[in-house]
Write a structure and sequence with these properties.
The protein is an alpha/beta fold. It folds into 2 domains: 4-79 and 167-509, Alpha-Beta Complex (Spore Coat Polysaccharide Biosynthesis Protein SpsA, Chain A); 87-162, no CATH class. The chain is 35% helix and 18% strand. The strands form 5 sheets. Strands 2, 3, 4, 7, 8, 9, 12, 13, 16, 17 and 20 form an 11-stranded mixed β-sheet that branches. Strands 1-14-15 form a 3-stranded antiparallel β-sheet. The protein has a two-stranded antiparallel ribbon with strand order 5-6. Strand 14 and strand 15 form a beta hairpin. The longest helix is centred in the middle third of the chain and has 31 residues, at 298-328. The chain starts with a helix and ends in a 23-residue tail after the last strand.
Length: 512
């Protein structure tokens, strides 16, 4: 199947030939659909914190975090081009401006132009046009909308169509407006400061954008360090080429470029488990680059971040205590207490067969199930936004656990499964805090906790030909399938993603 050139290409990417063979086998046999048991709801899989609990957890977090190494992990490699899909379509359309603007109440291009002064990048766009002798206000009044949009998206102006979201101006402030990256620095200063008054922030970026990220950070870092009297430690990583996936023809033969080389595609956000695995920290907060709000709305986000961080630290402390007991004690007196804690506090389902085990087997079972990475996932009430949902899921071994499941993982032809999917009350806003060290203070090898059966196959095209592409188990889906998982309800105001440019016009992204 592979010649010498193929093997050299595979080796250059740092991929084992066995890995490629496994990927092709996955194309042939496909991935099984997720087996939903029931949705996770308040009181059965999702915890709703009382006001008193929140206050206690925040206090606990604030009293503990100063002695820890904390990292804010921000997936930030996504390009912003999809944000501007409607604007690109407008430039490519043959319609006149008047025809394109007929339905003013729903037309996203009309809304963009009508409220252009409400965007944080308005002044920059105005200056870019002015350099070439164009006055933005005149272009607006003369309905020269294509010129305005071209200067926003293309390299003759701001080049926003090619930049990553993290470098786009999101919010307006006095005296200067902020890009999304800056809002994550401010967030880190509010809940991610650890020992020695340091705030560690790690961005995963595309290689072509790395220098731009570094330049932006260099421009603003000193300002925020003085403002919050802290030191920022900023690090970056790129998606490893070893996580790329081979593409195949529709008959599962390797897809080849015109020059005969193999076609590889990025493995999706699940590839970032590699980046996460490389980090050394006691606590890692994960949040997407586009889910930020202005300062006036940050308080609730900060409170809940501290609360779920405090909850993780409390549960982790108790878990470590029990693990040490299981490892060192000859006594079996605590088995019942540990079993109860595992089920009620850590959502670990223990089958009735556990009762038939002898004491040493019970200790071994509990040790294995407690000695795992732990994550607290914020969940918001489902109000129609896209996103994976929280469910009780049965794996191929018959084990039931809490998982974040995307709709694409569910069999659309199975009415029972679809009914369970539709009955979900919450969804995942990618709001996680993770504990990736064991009770000895050693980092877990996160590869050991991935469910390889949760990959995804889709049909794409290249050079006019259809192909099959494969994605790794998602970062917060199958890549964390075998972690200890706790779901906690968080307010909808903590979820404010920017998927289209007009999302920046929502009240949550505008000055108060």
């Amino acid at each position: 199947m592979f010649d010498k050139n193929d093997l050299n290409q595979i080796q250059s990417k740092g991929i084992e030939i066995e890995t490629i063979e496994n990927q092709i086998e996955n194309f042939i046999k496909g991935f099984p659909f997720t087996d939903l048991v029931k949705p996770a709801i308040i009181g059965n899989g999702i915890e709703k914190l009382s006001e008193n609990s929140i206050n206690e957890l925040v206090k606990y977090y604030e009293g503990t975090c100063r002695d820890l190494d904390i990292i804010k992990f921000v997936p930030a490699s996504g390009a912003a081009s999809r944000m501007f899909k409607n604007l690109f379509n407008f430039l490519e359309s043959e319609s006149t401006s008047s025809e394109f603007f007929e339905d003013k109440s729903f037309n996203p291009v009309y809304n963009f132009i009508h409220r252009i002064k409400d965007f944080a990048f308005y002044e920059d766009l105005k200056d870019a046009l002015l350099k070439d002798g164009f006055y933005l206000e005149e272009n607006l009044s003369n309905k020269e909308f294509p010129v305005i949009i071209e200067y926003l998206l293309n390299d003759k102006g701001l080049d926003y169509g090619k930049l990553p979201k993290g470098l786009l101006k999101f919010h307006r402030y006095e005296p200067s407006n902020r890009v999304a990256l800056e809002e994550h620095l401010v967030e880190a200063a509010k809940y991610g400061v650890s020992k020695n008054k340091k705030a560690f922030v790690h961005f995963t970026v595309s290689p072509e954008h790395l220098d731009k990220f570094k330049t932006q950070v260099d421009q603003v870092k000193d300002e925020y360090e003085k403002l919050f009297d802290i030191t920022f430690e900023i690090s970056y990583s790129v998606q490893k080429s070893s996580t790329d996936m081979i593409a195949v023809e529709m008959n599962n033969e390797p897809f080849r470029e015109k020059d005969g080389s193999l076609l590889f595609r990025p493995g999706g956000h699940g590839a970032l488990i590699e980046n996460l695995n490389d980090l050394e920290a006691d606590l890692i907060f994960i949040k997407n680059i586009d889910n930020v709000v202005p300062d006036r709305l940050k308080e609730i986000t900060t409170i809940y971040k501290k609360a779920i961080g405090g909850l993780l630290l409390k549960l982790q402390s108790k878990t470590f205590e029990f693990l040490k007991e299981l490892e060192n004690s000859e006594s079996t007196n605590l088995i019942g207490k540990i079993e109860s804690f595992a089920q009620s506090d850590l959502n670990i389902k223990i089958s009735t067969g556990f009762n038939d085990l002898d004491p040493d087997e019970k200790k071994s079972f509990l040790f294995h199930h407690l000695n795992r990475p732990i994550r607290i996932c914020g969940m918001v009430k489902n109000e129609g936004e896209p996103g994976g949902g929280p469910f009780w899921v049965k794996n191929s071994k018959g084990e039931i656990s809490l998982q974040v499941v995307e709709s694409s993982q569910v069999n659309a032809n199975d009415d029972t499964q679809m009914d369970i999917l539709k009955s979900s009350t919450h969804f995942n806003p990618v709001d996680l805090v993770c504990g990736t060290k064991n009770y000895k203070g050693e980092s877990f090898d996160l590869h050991k906790f991935i469910d390889p059966e949760t990959g995804f196959i889709s049909v794409k095209s290249k050079d006019g030909k259809n192909l099959k592409a494969q994605e790794l188990p998602g970062l917060w889906n199958g890549a964390m399938a075998n972690w200890i998982t706790i779901f906690v309800e968080v307010p909808i105001i903590t979820f404010n993603p920017v998927k289209t440019v007009n999302d920046l016009l929502r009240p949550q992204h505008q000055p108060g």
